């Protein structure tokens, strides 16, 4: 009996290890390609550390392309949008969490409903609006296009978190003479720092990884975000593969770490929103 | 670079000022609605402001009448109630109205008018478009959004794509979650490695995998060659299959994490009781695990279906380059290409509305179906 349980356990681990290899392998390959020396970029070699491994591709992607500029563009656009998104969501989420007013239920449902709208559907009118405002190919156009895309989800996350903060804290503050808004601003908001940072992170990664809107709004290579830049590099697959892989790896590492750190909260936010809606 | 940064700073300051003005406006209306001069005073102020800004009579009259309606609402309907929630919600609400609700109406307007490359210059000067009626809606069903693929082919592909992807996501996620819940050691490490496809930036993951399906230097064909099989032209001959494989790989971790959460919330007592009654492992799975996962799985599958149905990223990044194939396109990616590769604006607006109606009908059906099953299991 013990023998059988042991065999079963080995089998379990073997299956999981196999699954892990499938899920990690593409990234390992990316690293392998980025380490290839320039003259051996195109080979059918599958080893993870290629012969004659060098960091030359990293140097080249930083020096010969606008990689750093692309990162900078992404950073400016993403930071401003996340800041706007979270500020709007912080107050709206509080209204939904603490007050009953006509349309509060309907409003929450409609917010979930916006997630059903195909992204491609909103993009055309948004693009035309941005064009008429003369904001094509500017940071501002991107910020306008991104600023509310994550708002419904952020409101749900924050509302869920506010719901867990006991009202007695605010009531005590009211007795001590603060206003209703003061109670929110001085008591609830500081207590919600974890949820606020998760919402910020969610907004940030959404905008940071976005490609389709950027493709439409930005056309000048000096305004490109990194997603557009990498797509360009990958388009010249045969000549720039190493540089593409090096750039991809550099972008992936921080995003990966942030995600692993925050995924627990994101999932609970997702299912919370889904179950209650 | 500096000037665009300056522009961003200006914009943020402007935005903050606009929000402050809005809140001030609301505050004045919430606190002063009972004064005698409230109605004539605010209407006069609005009229004067508009007259000063626009110097035209129609604008002044419009501003004054809008303010009259608003003031009447504040005086007789709102009466100072719900002041704080309204003030908290106003900025976000206006943002959503301008950037989601207004574009939706604009899309409907576009679908019934004629905006294409030849009329866009005139439109951006005058803002007027020739009326087109249902012409574009008729074209959605009779002509191709791209070069030759028809609407019905795209529709069939979308259904196939959504069904295959979501089933694979749920099945793969379920198996992995089950395996994870059974092991004691290294669970955290396995979990971390297994969520990597979800954690990587999607653009990087898709582009990297696209490279791995390259006919000569991609991993897949190298492996096939080493096993003595002939290489497959993945990207040109089987683009939809390639996209599906990539998307399955991308989507499994989300389902795995959700299902794992669900599994961990099922009490061990049920399994102990079932084991005493002599239930086999399969029976426990069938009669305990699956039914108890339902509340978690329901919303996750709904979300997953909508996401997959609306997924442009994978297909566009794999086939969207110049000269790319249209054999992998589903409805939404064809919509994106029709608008932004072929510049058929009004046509794609009509297509977008048709797609939206399909999605809406499907979700109503789904709601009805899941309500029905709820009463069975409830």
What is the average per-residue confidence, as pLDDT of chain B, rounded to a whole number? Answer: 87
Shape of chain A: globular
Beta-strand content estimate of chain B: under 5%
CATH topology of chain A: MetI-like fold
E-strand count of chain A: 0
Overall form of chain B: extended
Q: How many E strands of chain B?
A: 0
Q: What structural class do you assign from the helix and strand content of chain A?
A: mainly alpha
The fourth-level CATH homologous superfamily of the largest domain in chain B is MetI-like
Along the chain, the helix and strand elements of chain B come as HHHHHHHHHHHHHHHHHH
Mean pLDDT of chain A: 86
Give the helix/strand class of chain B: mainly alpha
Q: Output the number of helix runs of chain A.
A: 13
- What is the name of the CATH topology of the largest domain in chain B? MetI-like fold
Largest sheet of chain A: none
Could you estimate the helical fraction of the residues of chain A in percent? Answer: over 70%
The percent range for strand residues of chain A is under 5%
Compact summary:
The complex is a heterodimer of chains A (277) and B (378). With 277 residues, chain A is an all-alpha fold.
List keywords for this structure.
heterodimer; A: 277 residues; mainly alpha; 13 helices; globular; B: mainly alpha; MetI-like fold; 2 domains; 18 helices; 78% helix; 0% strand; extended
